[in-house]
Write a structure and sequence with these properties.
Order of helices and strands: HHHHHHHHHHHH
Strand content: under 5%
Helix content: over 70%
Number of helices: 12
Mean pLDDT: 75
Low-confidence stretches: 135-151
Number of strands: 0
Distance between the termini: 52 Å
Structural class: mainly alpha
């Protein structure tokens, strides 16, 4: 009887997983759009959670063998779990880029072009800070003439919440799906993804942009720095939102691991 129950359960779960998941999304995630990767990651987490619950709790009434859940994991989910890390990180990269590109497109801001100009500006400031205005003129780079200010602030609360949301969900999936010996490493990679996409590509970029494009100081006129000050204020608020996400979601998941000290 016990063997029959096992075989029927394995067969039903296997068939459900096979028709619900695209195996290539996990083996070759680089080929897929973020929406497809998201669907498969969410579906895998849901099916795995439900199957493990059934195997470890409900079917335990008929079978006291504690290896049942482990056997099911190996037979049905092994190939997906092996490639989980690759699919998750690819999804975070593509989804974050999509969120940022959609926002900058909405305000008609060419981030790549402006980022190149900002880098040139920073390089010149560092090399010849004492002669900033003359140096910029001599190099042919005049950010104040080139700049086309965005139609709105470069820091978005919607972008902030969207990036925090997808990374928080990734943490939840990692805790559920990752092999215990690899979990802390994957959590660190998720944290690094959040820092790169949110802090570097959104928050720091906005501050750098308004710093580089602020009007030059002219003794005859008071410099207009409203956008810069607003951005700094917004940056402080969004940074505290990020800090709360780390404290509530990521740090508890890596508590008492070697990664905790690195992330802090």
């Amino acid at each position: 009887m016990t063997r029959f129950i096992r075989e029927m359960f394995d067969k039903q779960v296997y068939q459900k997983v096979k028709i619900s998941l695209d195996a290539e999304c996990f083996s070759h995630p680089e080929k897929y759009q973020p929406s497809k990767l998201k669907h498969n990651l969410i579906t895998l987490a849901d099916l795995y959670s439900r199957a493990m619950k059934l195997a470890s709790e409900d079917l335990a009434k008929y079978d006291n063998d504690i290896s049942f859940a482990n056997d099911l994991k190996k037979k049905v989910f092994s190939s997906y779990l092996t490639n989980y890390r690759k699919a998750e990180l690819e999804y975070l990269t593509k989804s974050s880029q999509e969120i940022l590109e959609e926002f900058y497109s909405l305000i008609n801001h060419d981030k790549k072009e402006q980022a190149d100009a900002i880098q040139m500006h920073i390089k010149n400031v560092k090399s010849r800070l004492h002669n900033f205005r003359e140096n910029m003129s001599a190099s042919g780079t005049n950010l104040h003439e080139q700049a086309e200010m965005p139609n709105g602030q470069l820091l978005s609360f919607n972008v902030t919440t969207s990036l925090l949301e997808i990374h928080s969900r990734a943490v939840d999936r990692c805790v559920l799906l990752a092999d215990p010996k690899d979990r802390s490493t994957i959590l660190r990679e998720i944290a690094v993804s959040l820092l790169n996409n949110f802090v570097k590509d959104h928050l720091e970029y906005a501050i750098d942009f308004y710093t580089a494009h602020r009007p030059p100081v002219d003794s005859r006129n008071e410099p207009v720095i409203g956008d810069f000050l607003t951005t700094v204020g917004n940056a402080s608020v969004t940074y505290h939102t990020l800090e709360k996400c780390f404290n509530d979601t990521i740090l508890p998941s890596i508590a008492n691991t070697e990664v905790q000290s690195e992330v802090r």
